[in-house]
Amino acid sequence: MLLAPLAQAGADGSHTRVLALADMALSDLMQVNVSIATRKPTAVRDTPAAVFVLTGEDIRHSGATTIPEALRLVPGLDVARVDGHSWAVSARGFTNIFSENLLVMIDGRSVFTPLFNGVNWDVQDVMLEDVDHIEVIRGPGGSVWGANAVNGVINIITKHAEDTQGGLLAGGGGTQDERGFGALRYGGALGDNGYFRVYGKGFSRDNAKDFFARKIDNYEQLRGGFRADMDMANGEWTLQGDIYRGHEGKQRSLILPAAPFSQTVNDLINVAGGNILSRWTSGGLSVQAYYDKVRRDQATFVENRDTFDFDLKYHHDPFGIHDVQWGLGYRLTRSDLPGGLTISFNPDKRSDSLFSAFVQDEITLIPEALSLTLGSRFEKNDLSGYEFAPSARLLWHVTDTQQLWGAVSRAYVPPSQAEASMRHNFVRVPGFNLALVPNAALNTIDLIAYEMGYRNQFSPDFSVDSTVFINDYKDLTTTTTGSFNPATGLLPISQGNDMSARTYGAEVTARWQVFDPWRLTASWSWLLLHAYSSTDPGSAIGLESTPRNHLSLSSYLELPYHMNFDTMLYTTSSRPNISNPARAISAWTRVDLRLGWKPVDTMEMSVAVQNVFDEKHEELSTASKLRLPFGRSIYGKLTATF
Fold first, then answer.
1. Cα 339–chain centre separation
2. Do 50 and 138 touch, CB atoms closer than 8 A?
3. Which of 54, 196, 267, 318 is paired with 360 by a 20 to 30 Å CA distance?
4. Tell me: the pLDDT tens digits for 412-427?
5. Measured between alpha carbons, how far is 197 from 167 in angstroms, rounded to an integer?
């Protein structure tokens, strides 16, 4: 079979047991436990949400070398590469480089930055060989995860240290995207009841090139970390941490204090950071705390950020038909943002607190047939004050192999730190200044989502999972140009909440075990978006650039002589641009191939070709004038265990 063992872990990263998915039939995969939707281990078939599990073996077969590239395999996610080190990842529309509607975690640690309300994917990395699985919700998760869990939630869960004993060495290289990379990991025992692992990895990716073959950027990074897991008499304790440092190129326009007043430069961005996380679980109680530090040094501004987070969760079954969870949390974020002539912050130093609590009750209406889950999260933050995100989810087991579910949820996006305090000068010459000015009075973006899903295991070898939804958004952020002030020379661009939108969507995923060595997975997602703004019709452009259709197909085929042949196909419809058709993104199709061979059980050699037919294409249009096409990339890899 094609799937390796999957540790059954909670959304907080807790480990319970290992199931040998390699020996499972396709129908048994519906019994795999996930926790991202309910914050407790729940079988996929019993989860009243659009949930998908991407295993570590799926990632290996895909040939992906970064987390965003691996996420292309997830149905309903829109992954668009911007340049050599930047990606936009979103679910159910609103694709942009920050994607404020998608909450992302690694082992339960949020990697979502409040600066721009988004994820810097260039520094979100783990040793991919140590990824156990990735759990993904498409749709709101705010009732258990809070702010920004609007259109989706992703949790990247690494393996328990017990599952990474011994040594592993991986390395390779190739053309452009993968000039060279390597990783080393070693795991051992800690007494009779504990295990640990340490790892180090690095990569160097060559400069991407624009249509004129000019080198634009590069991408190099070193990273290391550890994890320790201890089974104790009164529970299980985990301690883990990571540290990284790297640099990457970026072409940008800078404001100058004298003529010519602006200049396009090749900026070298230096990135560094680290984190440490501790978690203790005992019965229904889980306590987690982490510290995360980030530094990002670029020509326009510098970001220094320290985050302290505490989370407590308790799960119990007090009345038989009621399965109750509740939790409390606190997060403190301290930022230091020295600016420059192009971008500045006022204040440039600040501390923000987030207080949170959630409660959820799964009520059994008809045993083993019908259940209702009610819950809400309550938060207080320093930018928008008090918020809440209630949800109601109904699950009906129509038969042993069919499930029907429906949900109504609220989710929200508070204003970002940049929206409240950042000034961005676009033009600054004597007597005239065109600038985006901050607005500390922005409202929270609000979503009411209506979802319905249907799953059917038609046979042990064929299953279908489908979802339809309607999302209503209000107070979406818009930009308007104000009046010119002759006294100051300022022509301001200000932000407001003058837009509403409605999306209609459908998502279908089918899995087919054609025969024992060959598995196919196909998915299709469709999205129709209507945006309304009375003050700034042009603001809808960014929303309507979302592709209407996504289609993906993956094929994993085991061949004789311990070989694998894997094929991935991705196709995306066009991204229109109403105000500037020249900046629209055409539809594109990409085919990836991977051939792997295991001459012995402890070694695998593989060759991967991404974008086989070398169809150079752009994937996303950003505010920058720079747009990079992506073509064929080839690399080889050797993995050995000892």
1. 28
2. yes
3. 54
4. 999 999 999 999 999 9
5. 9
